[in-house]
Amino acid sequence: MNLRFVNVGGVGSQPSLDKQKHECIQRNEKNKLKLGVFLYRNPVFQKRRKLWHELTQTKINPEQVIINAEHLATEYHNATRGRSTNNIPRAGRNGEKKRIIWRPPPQNRLKVNTDAAFHRETGTAASTVVIRNWQGKIITGTTSKFTTISTLAAEAQAYREALILIKNLQIVNCIIETDCLPLVQAIKSRMPIAETDAFIRDILQLLDEAPDVGATWIPREGNKVAHQLEAMAAGNELRQQWTFDPPNQVRNTIRIEVRFTILQHNQWLQNQVNGDSDSTNHQGFQLEEGSPERVEMETVTGKKLKGEGSFDP
Q1: Exposed site from 66, 116, 153, 243, fewest CB < 10 Å?
Q2: Residues 6+ apart with CB under 8 A from 103
């Protein structure tokens, strides 16, 4: 009987396995080389390499980083500045719709509203300070045009002008409102921002000298009169005696705000009669929902508001 032996997996098959392994390694090396060439030529990875080189080779300046961040915040503020939600009701705590609008101060206080606009191409800015009483009537105010570096710096300068005005007029008990939230946050935290450092230091000093002056943020919808006056001042459309004879557009806005406030107060009285006072505050004027860092509760104390016929803007 003849037997034939077959070498399975023995020494005879080893050269074939080594050859396959070598070819596999070569293919992998070629693929890695192709991938490396692709990544090296890819523009996205070129930008990443350039950025990484700049970060590792240059010394980071923390102050410059803060300034760049503030410029980005200012650009975002400018981009979203025109997006208004005027006349869009917002839901309150009980689901009722609330309209954001200017709120009158208590009868023994005045309210000061400020606003500013900045034109990046020319570097010019316009600001407005308007002081109103509990009836919504304009007591006095001021407008100015100047050059500055950003919207935030313009808002800070307008705020400082408001404090200087009330100091000169010896108004010791008032509320200052602005729709610039970053500025209010910087004032509350007492942390100057690079581009507004000098302005905020002056603001903090003036506020320390006037402990009865409250500083609050208000949405753009509640700062409409100041915004209208600032836009007119920027376009040289505002008369010199505007505090005594407001433009028709401003006069109409004041009438709407006062009428809406009277309606709210009457609604509060009706709620008191019905025993339901949860939808408003305890003195009859609703607070705006979603207003961050709101410090003061602007309410009218004691007496009932007069009717529309008593209002004279």
Answers
A1: 66
A2: 111, 222, 261, 285, 288, 298
Q: Which of 298, 292, 288, 271 is nearest to 98 (CA)?
A: 288
CA torsion sign, 276 to 278 to 281 to 287?
Answer: negative
Q: Residue 257 and residue 133: Cα distance in Å, rounded?
A: 13
Residue 26 buriedness (CB in 10 A; 0-12 / 13-18 / 19+): exposed
Q: Domains (ranges, CATH) in the chain?
A: 101-303 (3.30.420.10)
pLDDT tens digits, residue range 210-259?
888 888 899 988 999 999 999 999 888 888 889 899 999 999 999 988 88
* Alpha-carbon dihedral sign for residues 129, 176, 117, 220: negative
CA distances from 152 to 57, 104, 146, 193, 203 (A): 33, 26, 14, 9, 14
CB 212 within 8 A of CB 175: no
Q: Which amino acid is at 92?
A: G
Structure tokens at 9: 């997996």
The answer to whether residues 172 and 140 touch, using CB atoms and an 8 Å cutoff, is: no
Angle at CA 286, nearest 5°, toward 280 and 287? Answer: 120
